[in-house]
Structure formats: structure tokens, C-alpha cells
Design goal:
The protein has eleven helices and 13 strands. The protein is an alpha/beta fold. Helices cover 35% and strands 24% of the residues. Strand 2 (33-34) and strand 3 form a beta hairpin. The chain has a single domain (8-287), classed as Spore Coat Polysaccharide Biosynthesis Protein SpsA, Chain A (Alpha-Beta Complex). The mean pLDDT is 91. The strands form three sheets. A nine-stranded mixed beta sheet has the order 5-4-1-6-11-8-12-10-9. A two-stranded antiparallel sheet has the order 2-3. The termini are far apart. It has helices at residues 39-49, 64-69, 74-82, 86-96, 112-117, 120-123, 143-154, 215-221, 232-242, 260-273, 278-287, and strands spanning 8-12, 33-34, 37-38, 54-59, 100-105, 128-131, 135-138, 158-163, 173-181, 184-192, 203-211, 246-249, 253-256.
Length: 290
Amino acid sequence: MPSRKVSKAIIPAAGLGTRFLPATKASPKEMLPLVDKPLIQYAVEEAVSAGLQDIIVITGRGKRAIEDHFDVSFELEENLKESGKEKLLKEIRRISELANFCYVRQRHARGLGDAILCAQHLIGNEPFAVILGDEVIDAPVPAIGQLIEWYENLGTPVLGVYEVEPEEVSSYGIISAEPAGPRLFKVTDLIEKPSLQEAPSRLAVIGRYILPPGIFSVLEKTQPGKNQEIQLTDALRTLARSSPMHALLVNGNRHDAGDKLGFLKATVEFGLKNPELGDRFARYLKGIRF
């Protein structure tokens, strides 16, 4: 019987970031700063807080800044040490010691399903987490940790879902499901970006998944869909027809930071929570006249 212990996370980061052009023409979208940390660091810290120590980042051309960010920077550390900036030095060292990192390049932009397949040789026969850095979730218990707890109890794939507004339904993969417990649902089908009339619910799949190793064989057989990309939703739909699958309504404040407006909202909320900036930022916002 395959282990139910989850220890590895895949963070896909090979996308072109077209929604943030021209800012992302030469800099990875994942490195856009949300207050004082790049987006991808929030995803890594969420994984680490949930007990995951092996982080597999799927990268592409022009993404070296991600590797550099989590690497040791001897020159910077020495400069901070000589300048007496101990607090900053401690933080920089903490970043490079967060987890065990492995980087795999996705040679062609063939979708999320293909990105996950790129890590198959590193996952082996283990269940694993997938965290999309676009979705920043401020939660008392790490969002991916909430899914891990249910996976270790149930042994079935667990998808993170969030109830979206009617006008947002057509932007997400939507599940058809039956209640199975507190915030828990048994998934019967998935529909990618349906119209409101076609949607079986308003429960949208967000960027958090706990998947079994069996998803790889399904992905290998999944035919390219829109834009000739291998869609993870298509593979999950196939998997749901042959074995049980659950979805968990994630408890937390979710921000779609892959969208410009969502990124701005996240910046405001995280800025207000920042212990060094929050009070001054709040006073500034109160003084703005529209």
C-alpha cells in the first residue's frame, strides 16, 4: 500500500506571466514583491509550515532569479555582517535554509499537467502536494496543511476549493460534488471554466492539491486541450471517474495574486498586517481622498 505521508511539494513556476506584462518581460512573475517578499516565497513558507521539506520548483527560461533567491548569497551576507545589519542577515540566511530545493525545467509551455509530469522522477511512488504561487492564502492553519490532514485520513486525492462569486465562475475549474463532512465534499466531476448556467456549483478549484502518484499515469495519457496544453483538470476528471476524490473548502483569506486587481488587494491587506508598516500605512489610506 502506498504511503499516506506527504513530504514533497511541487511549485509550478514556468509560466510566462503575460497578465503582468511588461513588468514580467525580464523578471519572473513569481518574483513580484508582495510587500517585502516575492510571491513564490509565500508558497514555499506555506509548504514548510505544513511540514513539507522537499520543494520541487518547475521553472522555465528566464527563471534563474528564483533559484538565486533561495540560494546562499555569500557576498550579500558578508556585506550585511560588516554593516551590522544582523536582523536582515538573519532573514537572508533563513531564506536559503527554508527547505531542500530541486529545480526542474519545463522545456515547453504545455500546461500545468505537463509541469507536474516534469517532476515524476523526483516524486516516485509517493503522494505529493501542488501549490500554485498565484494563490496566496492567509490562513491560521496553512492551506496545504489543511488538505494534508484530510489526505492522511482518507487516502484519496484532495483538492482545495473556494466558493466564488457568480461572475467569477467562468474563470475557474468548478467541481460537481456531494457533501461529505464539515467543509468536505466528494467530487463527482470537474468542469473547466463553465458558464454560470453550466456550472454545477460555485466551488472553484484553487491552487492547492494533494495528489497520489497514480496521477502521473493519467497525465501521460491525457490529450492536449486548449492551446495544446495538458490540463490538470482533464486528468483529475478522469481520475475522479475511477476512484474516490474529495475537495476541501479551505479556511483562510484567499488572494488571486496572479490577477492585477487581486495582487493590489493582497498588497493592501498584507501591508496593513505588516508589524513595521501597518499603522503608518493605515493612516495613509485613511487620508486618501477620492
